[in-house]
Amino acid sequence: MVVIPTNVMALLNAHDTVKLLITSSKDGQPHAIPAGSIAAPTADTVIIGEILTKQSVKNIAENKKAAFVVIKGMEAYEINVVAKEKVTSGPMLDGMNKAMAAMHLHANAVLTFAVESVYNQSASPAAGQKLA
């Protein structure tokens, strides 16, 4: 099991960071979106609310591998993941919708991902270093 380092978890769960989901279609066409609903509820799982994510959801159905990028200032990390499940009811979805209500957004589901690796992508000599 790969776990996200504590400092990367803090950035993933902060509200003042830029967060991206990067997926790829079955023919290799990349697709990147910013998403404020990206979070890490545990050190080995990343989630995103299914909110305005039609192409990303299609890509994930075709290719389970994806990546999340989180950025704050000069600090940046890439988290490589594989799709686990789509949660369509229950406490996880309820919690996501409670958090998204302040932005007048609603998630149809929560997509969950298992962490495969974490890389430092900061603007520093450590860029490209595998952390987990």
What is the secondary structure topology, with strand pairs?
Elements: H1 6-13, E1 18-24, E2 30-34, E3 39-42, E4 45-49, H2 54-62, E5 65-72, E6 75-87, H3 91-101, E7 110-120
Antiparallel strand pairs: 1-2, 1-5, 3-4, 4-7, 5-6, 6-7
Give a brief rundown of this model.
This protein is of the alpha+beta class and 132 residues long. It has helices at 6-13, 54-62, 91-101; strands at residues 18-24, 30-34, 39-42, 45-49, 65-72, 75-87, 110-120.
Question: Could you list some keywords that capture this structure?
Answer:
132 residues; globular; alpha+beta; 7 strands; Pnp Oxidase, Chain A; 21% helix
Helix fraction, binned, reads 10-25%
How much strand?
35-45%
Structural class: alpha+beta
CATH topology: Pnp Oxidase, Chain A
Low-confidence stretches: none
What's the main sheet like? 7 strands, antiparallel
The name of the CATH architecture is Roll
Shape: globular
Distance between the termini: 10 Å
Computed Rg: 14 Å
Instruction: Using the coordinates above, name the CATH class.
Output: Mainly Beta
Per CATH, the superfamily is Electron Transport, Fmn-binding Protein, Chain A
Order of neighbouring strands in the sheet with most strands? 2-1-5-6-7-4-3
Q: Tally the beta strands.
A: 7
Number of helices: 3
- How many discrete domains? 1
Can you write the helix and strand succession as a string? HEEEEHEEHE
User: What is the residue-mean pLDDT, rounded to a whole number?
Assistant: 96
